[in-house]
Amino acid sequence: MKKILTYLLILVAFTSKSQQRYELNSGWFCANIKEIKSSGIEISKENFVTSGWMPATVPGTVLTTLLNNNKVPDPFYGMNNEKIADIYKTGNDHYTYWFVKDFSEKAIGNEQVWLQFRGINYRAEIFLNGKKVNQKVYEGMHLRQQFNITKLLAANGKNRLAVIVYPPDNPGNANGGQGGDGTIAKGLTTQYTAGWDWIQPIRDRNTGIWDKVTIEKTKAINISNPHVVTIVPGKRLPEGKQQPATIKVTVEIENPTEKPVSGILQYVIGGKTVSKQVIIAANKHSEIILPDLSFENPKLWWPSGYGAQNLYNMQVKFLAAGQVLDQENLNVGIRQIDNIWNEHTKSMGSYVNGQKIFIKGGNWIISDAMLRFSDARYDAEVRYHKDMNLNLIRIWGGALIERPEFYNACDKYGLLVFQDFWFSGDCNGRWVDPMKKEDQWTRRKYPDNHNLVLTAMEDQIKMVRNHASLAFWCGGNEITPPEDILQPLKNDILPRLDGTRILFDFSNSDEMSYNALGGNGDGPYGIQDTKSFWANQTFPYNSEVGSVGVGDYVSLQRFIPKENMVAPQFKSKPDSVWDYHKYIGYDEHINPYGKAKDAKDFAMKAQLVNYDQYRALMEGFSNKMWDWYTGSIIWKTQNPWTALRGQMYDYYLDPNACLYGLRKGSEPLHIMMNPIDSMVTVVNNGFKNLDNLMIKASAYDMEGKEYFYSQVFNSIGASSVRKFFPLNSFLEKLDKKEGLFVSLQILNLDKQVLSENLYWLPGKNGEYTGLQKIKTTPLNVTATQKSKGKVEVSLSNDKGNPVAFFNRVALISSSTGKRILPAFYSDNYVSILPGETKTLTVEFSGDEKNAVEVYGWNVDTKRVEIN
Question: In the list 254, 438, 693, 757, which could disulfide-bond 222, CB 3.0-4.6 Å?
């Protein structure tokens, strides 16, 4: 015990002298370049007057600052974006700004102070206390920069930082094309800002100090870019004792002083310490390889739905003369990711810790189109993906390599990440496109500065490579990078800096998913007949498939003005605001529920289509798991703007029925019915065989009468799909001309429901006439506070009633009646059978008094206070 206490005291002593790191995230001011005639040398001096300058948002963009100072209207509301000047028309000076920040810092003894920028768009000059900091131009949105400012600090500790930020040299004409006229891609920046088929152009093209600015204080040594590789041989299970894993660590170390530094480089993980005696020469940057660690009985990291997301804290330190000269902390997930070609499906198979994983993914653009990132928003969005029972997020190539905070959330929730680099078929020349300024041959060479791209790739790989969730690299969206970028990336950069993850040349390449069907290799897009997902084979590892996503009426009210709340009608042009926000038609799929009377009616009926569409999509792919497919990735699960397509939740983090339909269809253990032949089928994504499963099927008519069909005990193998029995003859005999409900359940020996599913079938004429006539059903609702941030909602339907169909539960503020966002529901858009009670849980943040609102297809809106 005495030895342990001594060790802890030594550890505290070391830790207390370790480096300091803090953000410069407030107190910034800015001014347009046209208003300021002074140089950076003058502006960065303490006596330069900035009293008339505008408060600036850093991290943030120029447009964010203008919005926060009420200089422009909210571009996400209505047609407001049209009221904001576009950079292509104004010229770059309109969005070129000086940013100034005063801060206190000094270096004592051997202390070193580092100024770190995690992202500036697009070019910058940096000045500190009347001196130029960056002797070479800082260029490229996707690139970190670090400067040793020790010798530039003011003797009195009062420092002024001045940064001038220039927009992309080629902002491009936002002419309505995918990436506008394409020239936005001439620079190393986000292509979507010139507009796409799911977003209007971002007027400043995201100019600004858009990511974190940090001051780090070390001693004579600076640790950077530690690299951790975990090797987990063999085929593992999440439970039980594990065979050892191997941990490999390399660390970059810089000695900026005039003397060599001798010390111990070490890391600590799970109570184990690995050390190495090293000498770092003066003014030297070195990479040190530490001895391998055989880690006994590791707690492994697994994708969501397959096991726990265990993470270990690792501390990397440089110790010398009784001091910690520098320290880096990171979280490590011990796991191994492999890729094995599936010759049967002719697509890549994904393996984690030796177990094959059926990929159920969602395409991600970016959290916020104006780059207003936060840990809380990242956490909420990634949690929604976990709640959808997905196990992968693909980062689309027209945006960026996501921020470490995003990856932290993916590590936490078990979402594998498929990371594109910064290329797209639209801007980079895959297709002939009359909207583009330059021809395919020219666009194929974008960006103009290939050496800058290679430098940025090296940097960004180092930034995120330690995350357990990072699973795959991809050269670009629907196109490879130019050959003199692809080959160094493939044959040098990734083997040297990572070496553990596959690189797909592009997002629908044959090496990922062999295209025997022709066409682009992804899709289909747009709303589909639900039977098509079961009947029609698409690409065996489909990188983009999906369609609609209009939110409910409350969601629409947040960004569509009252006068534009006009329900879209089949074959009619939608209202201008709906069109501006990229509405895509629900075609004839709304009308079978009855032609929409108004926007509120349309939004409710759209939720039925949303739920059915995404449940069927994932069920159809799962039905052919390992036969036709090794995975599918939804296009897309979220929007960084108030768009009306391709989203499971809206920009304000309010989920719609897409999320819960997808959640249902993606269950790890799931019972489902083939809409073509009514075959009841079960899919088991788990690693174990399951026995003694009770498979139950019934039908209900519109009056609530039950027609029992069968219940049988049976089993299903690990990671497999099994057919049980068809219902077609049973349903035909019922001869319900106006439609039916079909209820399916899996129960265990304790009669606990493991999976359930409710389908609503149209009448013989293809119309949901029964639903249109179904009687209003009273629903008993109670809400109980179980703990802070957790509410339990009970929904009961008395015997003798019709089915209480498709009920939306919403947590609302007791005082304002507005929804609490984000909120996470164990299920939603639920139906309650006659005589049934269902209990849902809602988790949220905040302390205000709340209530619960419930409404359904045939259930009147009801509000209950939380007890």
Answer: 254
Q: Is pLDDT of 553 > 90?
A: yes
- pLDDT tens-digit profile of 173-232? 999 999 999 999 999 999 999 999 999 999 999 999 999 999 999 999 999 999 999 999
Which listed residue (254, 328, 544, 756) is catalytic?
A: 544
The encoded tokens of residue 797 equal 């339907």
Rounded Cα distance, 469 and 411, in Å: 5
pLDDT at 83: 98
Q: What is the pLDDT of residue 496?
A: 97
Edge-first strand order for the sheet with 862-865 is: 830-832, 804-813, 850-855, 862-865
Q: How far is CA 795 from CA 427, 593, 776, 799, in A?
A: 51, 25, 15, 13
- Residue-wise pLDDT for 570-616, tens only, equals 999 999 999 999 999 998 999 999 999 999 999 999 999 999 999 99
Which pLDDT tens digit goes with each residue over 421-479?
999 999 999 999 999 999 999 999 999 999 999 999 999 999 999 999 999 999 999 99
- Those residues with Cβ within 8 angstroms of residue 587's Cβ, 6 or more apart along the chain or in another chain: 526, 527, 570
CA distances from 255 to 133, 280, 333 (A): 19, 6, 30
CA-closest candidate to residue 402, choices 377, 427, 429, 425: 377
Q: Which phi and psi angles does 32 have, rounded to 5°? A: -70, 145
Tokens of 801: 């009633």
Q: CA dihedral in degrees (352, 356, 360, 363; nearest 10)? A: 50
pLDDT tens per residue, range 244-262: 999 999 999 999 999 999 9
CB 287, CB 300: distance < 8 Å: no
The two tokens of residue 858 are 């045939």
Distance of CA 821 to the CA centre of its chain: 17
Distance CA 308, CA 88 (A): 49
Nearest C-alpha neighbor of 763 from the set 741, 791, 786 = 741
Active site residue 478: yes
What gap in Å lies between CA 57 and CA 65, rounded to an integer? 5
Cα 864 to Cα 849: distance, rounded to the nearest angstrom: 12
Catalytic residue list contains 544: yes
Give the contacts of 66 (CB within 8 A, at least 6 positions apart): 72
Contact between 268 and 314 under an 8 Å Cβ cutoff? The reply is yes
Phi, psi for residue 438 in degrees, rounded to 5: -115, 160
The H or E element spanning position 405 is: helix 404-413
- The C-alpha atoms of residue 463 and residue 458 are separated, in whole angstroms, by 9
Helices and strands of the chain, counted as H and E runs: 17, 44
Active-site annotation holder among 328, 381, 478, 738: 478
- Strand, coil or helix: 658: helix
Residue bearing tokens 């039950």: 706
The Cα 425–Cα 478 span in angstroms is 5
Residue 802's SS3 state is coil
pLDDT of 31 reads 98
HSE value, Cβ hemisphere, 13 Å, CA-based, for 120: 25
582 preceded by cis ω (within 30°)?
no
Q: What is the DSSP letter of 640?
A: S
Compute the CA torsion angle 387, 392, 396, 400 (nearest 10 deg): 90
Band of pLDDT at residue 17, cut at 50, 70 and 90: very low
- Site of tokens 């945006």: 399
Place of tokens 């070479």: 136
For strands 669-673 and 679-684, give the pairing: antiparallel
Q: Model pTM?
A: 0.96
